[in-house]
Amino acid sequence: MFSVGAFLAGRIIAHLDMDAFYANAELVRNPALKGLPVAVGGRRGVQPLPGQQFPTLAQYQGRGVLTTANYEARALGLHSAMPTMKAAKLAPNAILLPADFEWYKTLSRQFKAAVGELAPNVEDRGIDEIYIDLTEETDGDFEAAIDLARRMKAAVTHATGGMTCSVGLSENKLTSKIASDLQKPNGLSVVRPAQFQEIIWPLRVGKINGVGPKAQEKLKLMGVQTIAELAAQPVDLLRERFGESYGLWMHESAHGIDRREVTLYSEPKSISRETTFEHDMHVRRHRDNLTQVLLQLADKLSQDLARKQRLAKTIGVKVRFSDFKSLTRDTTPGEFVANADEIVQAARACLKKVAFDEKGVHSTIRLLGIKASHLITPADAAIEQAARETRNAKGQAQLFLDLEDAP
Ligand code: DCP
Ligand code: MG
Atom 12 of ligand 1 has which residue's CA nearest to it? Predict the structure, then answer.
């Protein structure tokens, strides 16, 4: 018989986010920490006092911030991005451990692989979160998706030696991301299409991934604090105040519309353009020609990016000398790069890092190339930008001071 249900079935997308990831990662290899308040911050760590099993916040001196805290420590008021000295005042007896990124990356690979075995359409969103498109596995049936989500949660716990995660289920990425946060830790939250208004509308606009502190501030001045209030704004007003595309995006988000697909990792990771010269070029004598080549390469690369609708986080250059030795240098400017001028500027910054010896063999070049990598869609760039603003507002800048050589 012809099944209308299957025909009309919408998508089902899960968002899975690990609970107190770095802190719980420490508990996996040190079960004696179970039940105790644990914070993670800094690289060096502090020494336990004589007679103490674990170092505590009381011993900390410095300007670092916490990367995270487990839920026992959160009950004492600790949270990510909190200055460690402030945390020490609040909870001097909470345990403070140094961050060990290699260990967290190992567990990250393990939980992602475990989920991938149950549902292969996994999009990697960073160290502790993924989106999974469950439409095919479940035929668009939420009951089947809940069952699968329970099995995914169990598989994650098994693969990581006991860690928990929280999952949101809905028809799109935006809603699932909000949902996964609703019942942390160890939660499973479902927002069926008909429940969007009931569950999501009462929440604050900041819960929408992509509405950062600046937009929240502006909305507040318009009297908009909840998603329901945002949904009630005329789309034209939002467009006028926030720009065509961001205004429309806000309007659609408040109405639960998000067409983004779960993208697997077959995406282009980088795009590059390079030229081998007919005659080797000298870095000083042929400076003008080299500049011309650089501008042409940047121009082509910016067109490639526009065609693929991507922005780049990282720009690199490749130089091959006349003795065929090659080297690459790259830079991540902090802003997303798309147009030719920005590419040239970043490429010049890379070339400054190359040690040309103006007399020897490394003064003449046979090949010059530019590469754009860490590519991102404009929609994801907006979301990331908002996330950065949030982190900055919470003092993430200090975190980088403390973790200068973190990956
Ligand atoms: N992290 C960080 N600095 C921040 C926020 C987070 O270094 N300002 C790191 C530590 C976290 C990990 O990223 O463990 C994942 O971030 P989440 O925001 O998912 O936070 P948690 O997983 O720690 O907690 P939750 O249970 O709220 O997801
Ligand atoms: Mg998390």
Answer: 21
Question: Could you tell me where in the chain the CATH 1.10.150.20 domains are found?
Answer: 203-264
Pocket of ligand 1 (CB under 6 A): 17-22, 67-68, 80-81, 127-128, 184-185, 391, 396, 399
CATH 3.30.1490.100 residue window(s) in the chain: 270-379
CATH code, residues 4-19+103-198: 3.30.70.270
Clarify whether 117 is annotated catalytic: no
* Span 11-55, pLDDT tens digits: 999 999 999 999 999 999 999 999 999 999 987 888 888 888 999
Residue ranges, CATH 3.40.1170.60, the chain: 21-100
SS3 of the chain: CCCHHHHHCCCCEEEEEECCHHHHHHHHHCHHHCCCCEEEECCCCCCCCCCCCCCEHHHCCCCCEEEEECHHHHCCCCCCCCEHHHHHHHCCCCEEECCCHHHHHHHHHHHHHHHHHHCCCEEECCCCEEEEECHHHHCCCHHHHHHHHHHHHHHHHHHCCCCCEEEEEECCHHHHHHHHCCCCCCCEEECCHHHHHHHHCCCEHHHCCCCCHHHHHHHHHCCCCEHHHHHCCCHHHHHHHHCHHHHHHHHHHHCCCCCCCCCCCCCCCEEEEEEEEEEEEECCCCHHHHHHHHHHHHHHHHHHHHHHCCEEEEEEEEEEECCCCEEEEEECCCCCECCHHHHHHHHHHHHCCCCCCCCCHHHEEEEEEEEEEEEECHHHHHHHHHHHHHHHHCCHHHHHHHCCCCC
pTM above 0.85, yes or no: no
Give the number of whichever ligand sits closest to the CA of residue 186: 1
